[in-house]
C-alpha cells in the first residue's frame, strides 16, 4: 500500500502541528517536494515484499468449551518440535505477547487481536529445535501492563489455588496453566515483574534473566531497556533446563551483548549452594500500607531453611531498592508512551528485527480508538503524555541517567553477598476485580504488587521467584536476585531451597486437569 501524498489541507495541518510558519504560497512550494520524497517509500515496500516471511500453515483453534477452566488459553495449537532433544515429549505454552507463526496473537488487547505472525520468535524457534511441543498461546494482560489478571480482553484468568483470586500478571495464563498441570513449561515476559509476580501468586517457579541474556526478538515490546523474556516452570531444574535453551545472542536484538558465555545451568544447580552468602534486603520487607505480615514471615521462614542448608544468611540495607522503583516508574511511564503507544510497540532508532505487519496492524487499530485500552494503559498513557508534553522527556533522561547509580548499589551489595533475597510480592493474591469496579480499584489491584520486582527490571539483574510456604492457603513467593549474567547462582540457591523443603506445594486436589 503506497504512501498517499498529503492533500493541501493535510499539508497545512502538518505544518501547523510543528509551527513551520508556512503561508499558502509556502505550502504550495513545498507540496511537490514532499510528494517526491515518497518514491523511496514505494521502492522500499517492493524490496521488502520480495523477502518478507510468509506464515506457515499451522492448525490452530480457539479453546473448546470446557477446556478453558481458568480462562488461561488464548488459542490452541499443536506445533511439534524436533524428534529428539532435551525437551522432547514436553509441552509448552507461549505467552501471547510472543509470536508463533501462523497462530493468532493478541497480546491481551483488542487493538492487537486479529494479528497472525509470519515468523516465530527466537525463543519459539529454540524451544522447537530442543524438541518441545507447543500446545497453545497463553492469555496475557492487556498489552502486558498489569500485575493482576483482570485486564485481558478475553476476560479474567483465574488462580488454580482459588478461582476467585488473581493469578498475578502479566504472564497470567502461563502461570495458571502451569499451576493446574496443563503444560510442562511456559514462557513469560517481564518488564515490571510479569514473570515473577504470577509465579509467586500461583506457586510456581519464574526466572527473569539478566537483561539481554534471552533474545526478545518476536515478542511485543513495551520499553526496550526493560524488556525481558524468561522461563516459567514447576521446578527449578526445569527452569535451568529451559534457560539454557533460551539464552544466548540471536544477532537480531539490540538488547543483547554481542557475546554471552554459554552456561550449563542444569550442571550449575547440581553444584549445590552450601556456603553461599545470602543478603536479606531490609527494604524488601515491611512496605507501609501494603505488606502482609504473613508473607514477610513466610519468606523469613524460608530464609531459615536456607541457613539450615548451609548458606550464610545476613541482613543488608539497600536504600536504592526503594529509589530504583521510582526510577523504574518514570522509565515505564514516559518510555512506554514513547515506544508502546506512540511508537506502535517498536518505536524507531534501534538496530534489530522489526515486525512491519504488527506495527501497522496495531497502529491502525490504535488510531481507531484508544478507548479499547485497559484502565492501566489509559492511566499510563495520560500520565506519560502529560510529562512528555510538559517536560519534553527531561524526566525520562534523568531516570535513565540514574540507572547506573541504582545498578551500582545492587552491585555493591552483591559484592558482599552471592544473592539478595526478599518477598517476590508483599501481598497475597487478591480477589479478581469485578468488571464494573471503580477505575481506582482496577488500577490499584493491577499495579500495587510490583514494588519489589520492578527495580531489577530497570537495573537488569537476574531474579528467580520460588514458592515459600503458603499463607492462609494461598501461595507466597521468595525472590532471589543475583549478579548480572550470573543467573546460575540464583538458580543454585533456588534449587537448594527446593531440595531442602522436599519440593513445592501444588494447588488443592482437583485443581489440575489433564495436560494438553
Number of separate strands: 14
Regions with little confidence, pLDDT below 50 for 5+ residues: 512-516
CATH architecture of the largest domain: Alpha-Beta Complex
As laid out across the biggest beta sheet, the strand order is 1-2-4-3-7-9-8-13-14-12-10-11
> Tell me about the biggest sheet?
12 strands, mixed
Rg over C-alpha atoms, rounded to the nearest angstrom: 23 Å
Overall mean confidence score, pLDDT: 96
Shape verdict: globular
CATH class of the largest domain: Alpha Beta
Distance between the termini: 41 Å
Oligomer: single chain
Beta-strand residue percentage: 5-15%
CATH topology of the largest domain: Amidase signature (AS) enzymes
Structural features, described:
With 516 residues, the chain is an alpha/beta fold. A 12-stranded mixed β-sheet has the order 1-2-4-3-7-9-8-13-14-12-10-11, sandwiched between helices. It has 2 domains: 43 residues, no CATH class; 442 residues, Alpha-Beta Complex (Amidase signature (AS) enzymes), CATH 3.90.1300.10. Helix 1 crosses helix 2, helix 7 runs antiparallel to helix 16 and helix 10 packs across helix 13.
What's the SSE blueprint?
Layout (H helix, E strand, L loop, with lengths): L7 H10 L6 H13 L2 H11 L10 E2 L11 E8 L10 E5 L26 H8 L3 E6 L19 E2 L2 E5 L5 H8 L5 E5 L6 H7 L2 E4 L20 E5 L2 H11 L18 H5 L7 E5 L11 H16 L3 E5 L3 H22 L14 H13 L6 H17 L2 H23 L2 E5 L15 H9 L6 H6 L3 E9 L2 E8 L5 H15 L15
Parallel strand pairs: 3-4, 3-7, 10-11, 10-12
Antiparallel strand pairs: 1-2, 2-4, 5-6, 7-9, 8-9, 8-13, 12-14, 13-14
Amino acid at each position: 500500500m503506497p504512501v498517499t501524498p498529503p492533500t493541501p489541507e493535510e499539508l497545512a495541518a502538518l505544518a501547523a502541528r510543528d509551527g513551520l510558519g508556512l503561508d499558502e504560497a509556502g505550502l504550495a512550494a513545498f507540496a511537490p517536494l514532499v510528494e517526491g520524497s515518497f518514491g523511496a517509500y514505494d521502492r522500499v515496500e517492493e524490496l521488502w515484499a520480495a523477502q518478507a516471511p510468509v506464515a506457515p500453515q499451522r492448525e490452530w483453534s480457539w479453546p473448546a468449551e470446557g477446556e478453558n477452566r481458568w480462562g488461561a488459553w488464548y488459542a490452541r495449537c499443536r506445533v511439534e518440535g524436533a524428534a529428539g532433544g532435551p525437551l522432547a515429549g514436553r509441552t509448552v505454552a507461549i505467552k501471547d505477547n510472543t509470536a508463533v507463526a501462523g497462530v493468532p496473537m493478541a497480546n491481551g488487547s483488542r487493538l492487537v487481536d486479529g494479528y497472525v505472525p509470519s515468523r516465530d520468535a527466537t525463543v519459539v524457534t529454540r524451544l522447537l529445535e530442543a524438541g518441545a511441543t507447543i500446545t497453545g498461546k497463553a492469555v496475557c494482560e492487556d498489552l502486558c501492563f498489569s500485575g493482576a489478571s483482570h485486564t485481558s480482553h478475553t476476560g479474567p484468568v483465574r488462580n488454580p489455588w482459588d478461582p476467585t483470586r488473581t493469578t498475578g500478571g502479566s504472564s497470567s495464563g502461563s502461570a495458571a496453566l502451569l499451576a493446574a498441570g496443563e503444560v510442562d513449561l511456559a514462557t513469560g515476559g517481564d518488564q515490571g515483574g510479569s514473570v515473577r509476580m504470577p509465579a509467586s501468586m500461583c506457586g510456581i517457579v519464574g526466572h527473569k534473566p539478566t537483561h539481554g541474556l534471552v533474545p526478545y526478538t518476536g515478542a511485543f515490546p513495551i520499553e526496550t531497556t526493560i524488556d525481558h523474556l524468561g522461563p516459567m516452570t514447576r521446578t527449578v531444574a526445569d527452569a535451568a533446563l529451559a534457560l539454557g535453551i533460551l539464552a544466548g545472542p540471536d544477532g537480531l536484538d539490540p538488547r543483547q551483548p554481542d557475546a554471552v558465555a554459554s552456561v550449563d545451568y542444569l550442571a550449575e544447580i547440581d553444584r549445590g549452594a552450601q556456603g553461599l552468602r545470602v543478603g536479606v534486603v531490609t527494604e524488601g520487607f515491611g512496605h507501609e500500607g501494603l505488606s502482609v505480615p504473613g508473607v514477610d514471615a513466610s519468606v523469613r521462614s524460608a530464609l531459615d531453611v536456607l541457613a539450615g542448608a548451609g548458606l550464610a544468611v545476613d541482613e543488608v540495607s539497600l536504600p536504592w531498592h526503594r529509589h530504583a522503583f521510582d526510577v523504574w516508574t518514570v522509565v515505564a511511564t514516559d518510555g512506554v508512551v514513547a515506544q508502546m503507544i506512540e511508537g506502535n510497540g517498536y518505536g524507531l532508532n534501534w538496530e534489530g528485527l522489526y515486525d512491519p505487519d504488527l506495527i501497522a496492524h496495531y497502529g491502525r487499530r490504535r488510531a481507531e480508538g484508544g478507548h479499547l485500552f485497559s484502565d492501566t494503559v489509559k492511566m499510563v498513557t495520560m500520565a506519560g503524555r502529560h510529562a512528555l508534553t510538559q517536560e519534553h522527556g527531561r524526566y525520562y533522561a534523568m531516570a535513565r541517567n540514574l540507572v547506573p547509580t541504582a545498578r551500582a548499589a545492587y552491585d555493591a551489595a552483591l559484592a558482599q553477598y552471592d544473592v539478595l533475597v526478599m518477598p517476590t510480592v508483599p501481598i497475597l493474591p487478591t480477589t479478581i476485580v469485578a468488571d464494573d469496579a471503580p477505575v481506582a480499584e482496577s488500577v490499584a489491584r493491577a499495579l500495587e504488587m510490583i514494588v519489589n520486582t520492578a527495580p531489577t527490571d530497570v537495573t537488569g539483574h537476574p531474579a528467580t521467584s520460588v514458592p515459600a510456604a503458603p499463607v492462609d492457603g494461598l501461595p507466597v513467593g521468595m525472590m532471589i536476585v543475583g549478579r548480572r549474567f550470573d543467573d546460575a547462582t540464583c538458580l543454585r540457591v533456588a534449587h537448594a531451597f527446593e531440595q531442602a523443603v522436599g519440593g513445592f506445594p501444588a494447588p488443592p486436589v482437583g485443581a489440575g486437569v489433564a495436560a494438553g
